[in-house]
Amino acid sequence: MALRSPVVTILVLSSAMLTGARASQDDSSRRLTPAEIAALVQGGPGAGSSGVAGIRTAILAGDPTKPGLYTIKLSVPAHTRIEAHRHGDDRSATVVSGTWYLGYGPGFESKALKALPPGSFYTEPPGRMHFAQTGAEAVVVYITGYGPTDTTYEPPPASRQ
C-alpha cells in the first residue's frame, strides 16, 4: 500500500506533462487524490479493457473512445483470466495494487506469465498480443494510451462469437 500514493502521483504528473500547454488552456486539467479516484463512477469492462465479466473501469483522463491521450483505471477481480488479445493503440501501464500476471504471445501460456507486483510498469505495443491473470487478490492497473482504443481477440473466444 505504501506505493499507492507515489504511483498515483507519477501517473497524474505524467499525464499532465504529456498534455502540455493544452491542459492549462482548457478544462482537461485534473488533480485526483486516491479517495477521489475511488469515488469515480466505475462501469463494467469499458473501452480499452479486455471485456471480461467482472472487470470494472473508470476513466481518469481523456476518452478512450476518441482520438487523444487517455488514462483508465482497470479493476480486475481475484482469480480472473484474460485470454490473448491486442489493442490498436500504443499503451503503457502501471500496477497500482495486487500482483498482475502478464504475458505476451498469440495464446494464453501460464509459463509465459511474469508476476508484476505494485509499482511495476509494462507496455502493450500496438497489435502485440498479450494475456493476463490475477491470483488470490484483486488487481488495479492504470493504463495510458492514445485513443481511440479497441480490443481484438484472434480467434475470438467462443463466448464472444
Fold topology:
Layout: H1 4-19, H2 21-25, H3 34-39, E1 56-61, E2 68-76, E3 81-85, E4 91-97, E5 100-104, E6 114-116, E7 121-124, E8 130-134, E9 139-147
Antiparallel strand pairs: 1-2, 2-9, 3-8, 4-7, 4-9, 5-6, 5-8
Describe this structure in words.
With 161 residues, the protein is an alpha+beta fold. It has a single domain, classed as Jelly Rolls (Sandwich). It has three helices and nine strands, in the order H-H-H-E-E-E-E-E-E-E-E-E. The chain has helices at 4-19, 21-25, 34-39; strands at residues 56-61, 68-76, 81-85, 91-97, 100-104, 114-116, 121-124, 130-134, 139-147. The strands form two sheets. The protein has a five-stranded antiparallel sheet with strand order 1-2-9-4-7, with helices on one face. A hairpin with a 6-residue loop joins strand 1 and strand 2 (68-76).
